[in-house]
Write a structure and sequence with these properties.
By secondary structure, this protein is of the alpha/beta class. The chain contains 12 helices and 6 strands. Strands 3-2-4-1-5-6 form a 6-stranded parallel sheet, with helices on both faces. The chain binds adenosine-5'-triphosphate.
């Protein structure tokens, strides 16, 4: 998926007059004169971990004249552990500015209320520069706290276009497993070792809550006492546990989105990206499926949303 994204970034997008929209922001004075006047527009991309939310956010941001991305993954808000937390790389972000990504110290604790405040500031700053904010991330409780705030401020100020990148769970299960294996190949063990602290076995604050950190505790504490074979076996068990926990997270994230749709009546457009994953052995087929099932329909949905 990352490779596909990067390849797409390198290819210049064909000129598309249909996508040349007016800025998402309307003259503030209009709002003062008419409190029921047009609201500012915000795009929200949801989905379980591994489904391609980041790719879609960059695709949309590069297709629309001026857009910036606001992260809503509560773990990626922290600095550090770029491999473990699967942060978008600068190459993958294709020059699109990202807000609230790696901005807090690793140990900082971020409440939903803190996140709401920070995200609102980012939205305002993006809109004040005449650009379109695209919020993307998997922390649905933070997203809910932002959008359904107690005094209904958010809904009264902004119109939202909700997009949900979904992948059938058995297919996502396979992909998430492969992704964890790649993280290990890319240096996950050493990355976690760097923040491991023998004197502290609590994993309830900041970035140490990330899946892939607590699971390594028993490995780092015991590896020095083990022979090569037993060490490998323990590492294999830890990696299996990380895969299970990551898939568990994906299932919970999916359930939360369903709940926001059914119980909270969020009007969320679901995009089924499953064929993108089943065809991923052929990059070309996967790219075609992505465009046909995810990027294309999302572009149409956001175009309509901006013109409304
Ligand atoms: P909850 O209320 O269950 O915390 P949430 O919607 O606020 O849900 P999630 O994004 O689902 O937050 O994160 C829940 C947990 O999943 C985190 O505390 C962390 O353990 C793990 N997690 C989330 N995002 C990541 C990530 N990018 N990398 C590693 N672990 C993550």
């Amino acid at each position: 998926i990352m490779k596909i994204s990067m390849a797409m970034c390198k290819q210049p997008l064909p000129p598309s007059p249909a996508l040349d929209f007016p800025p998402a922001r309307f003259d503030r004075n209009m709002l003062t004169l008419n409190p029921y006047g047009p609201k500012d527009k915000v795009v929200v991309i949801m989905g379980a971990t591994g489904t391609g939310k980041s790719r879609l956010s960059v695709d949309l941001a590069t297709r629309f004249r001026a857009a910036e991305i606001i992260n809503s993954d509560k773990i990626q808000v922290h600095q550090g552990l770029d491999i473990v937390t699967n942060k978008i790389t600068s190459e993958e972000s294709c020059g699109v500015p990202h807000h609230l990504l790696g901005v807090l110290p690793p140990e900082a604790d971020l409440t939903a209320a803190n996140y709401r405040q920070m995200a609102n500031l980012s939205i305002e700053s993006i809109l004040n520069r005449g650009k379109l904010p695209i919020i993307v991330g998997g922390s649905n409780s933070y997203m809910e706290a932002l959008v359904d705030d107690e005094d209904k401020q958010f809904r009264s100020r902004y119109d939202c276009c909700f997009l949900w990148v979904d992948v059938a769970l058995p297919v996502l299960h396979g992909f998430v497993s492969e992704r964890v294996d790649k993280m290990v190949e890319n240096g996950m063990v050493e990355e976690v070792r760097e923040i491991f602290d023998y004197s502290d076995s609590s994993y309830s604050r900041g970035i140490k809550k990330a899946i892939g950190v607590p699971e390594f505790d028993r490995f780092f504490r015991n590896e020095q006492f083990l022979n090569v074979g037993d060490r490998e076996e323990l590492l294999r068990k830890v990696v299996e546990e990380i895969k299970r926990n990551t898939f568990g997270l994906a299932c919970r994230q999916r359930e939360k989105i369903e709940r926001l749709r059914k119980v909270k009546k969020w009007c969320i457009q679901r995009l089924d990206a499953t064929p993108v994953f089943t065809k991923r052995r052929s990059k070309m087929d996967a790219d075609v499926a992505w465009e046909r099932l995810v990027a294309g329909p999302s572009t149409v949905a956001v175009s309509r949303f901006l013109l409304n």
